[in-house]
UniProtKB/TrEMBL annotation:
NCBIfam families: MSMEG_6209_Nter. Residues 24-78 form the Protein-tyrosine-phosphatase-like N-terminal domain. This is Protein-tyrosine-phosphatase-like N-terminal domain-containing protein. InterPro entries: Phosphatase-like_N. It comes from Saccharothrix tamanrassetensis.
Length: 81
C-alpha cells in the first residue's frame, strides 16, 4: 500500500513491518534447516527476532538486518563466542 505526498511515494509503515516479519520467518526457517533439527523452529525464530531487535536498536541502515540477525542467531545457537 502506498500513497503520494508532494509527488513522492510514501509507503505504509505497516507494510514495511509485515515484510520484515516475512523475512524473519524465512531466515528462521532456513536456519532451522541448517541446524538439522537440533533446535526447534520456535526457539530459532525467537533467537532471530531477539537478534534483529538488538541490531535494529543501533542500526542506521535497516536493509540487511534480517540477514545479519540470522547470522547472529546462528552464532548464538551454535555456541560461538
Amino acid at each position: 500500500m502506498s500513497d503520494r505526498l508532494d509527488g513522492h511515494k510514501v509507503r505504509d509503515p505497516r507494510d514495511l513491518h509485515a515484510r520484515v516479519e516475512v523475512q524473519l520467518d524465512q531466515a528462521a526457517e532456513e536456519l532451522t534447516r541448517r541446524l538439522a533439527g537440533g533446535v526447534s523452529y520456535q526457539v530459532v525464530r525467537e533467537t532471530v527476532v531477539e537478534a534483529y531487535r538488538q541490531l535494529a536498536s543501533r542500526a542506521k541502515v535497516h536493509g540487511f538486518l534480517p540477514i545479519l540477525a540470522a547470522r547472529l542467531a546462528q552464532q548464538r545457537l551454535q555456541g560461538a563466542p
